[in-house]
Amino acid sequence: MSRPEAELEVAPEPLEVECRPGPSGPEPVRFGAGGVMQTVAAVEDRWPGEDHRYLRVRTADGASFILRFDPARGEWRIAVFRDEAAFGATAKPS
Questions:
Q1: Would 90 be classed as within a structural domain?
Q2: Statement: the pTM of the whole predicted model exceeds 0.85
Q3: 33 in a domain, yes or no?
Q4: Which of 20, 28, 29, 38 has the maximum number of C-beta atoms within 10 A of its C-beta?
Q5: In a domain, 53, yes or no
């Protein structure tokens, strides 16, 4: 399923990531920063971007993250949806 990259804001710092092979390249098993790691319970969705791959993951504590992988650099970053309408919001805060 394709997602518009324009809706995403990407964190400036790369993540520490432990990976395993997945159907379309490496997939995170654990990720984090500053020594605080999250365990991935499930990869819920995958889609390609222009120069990156995106994965929506659910962690063991039930949180959801969208992670962006840059294969040219071998870096993972957290990407966050910016379009509130994508989540069913009816009004934007002022």
A1: no
A2: no
A3: yes
A4: 28
A5: yes
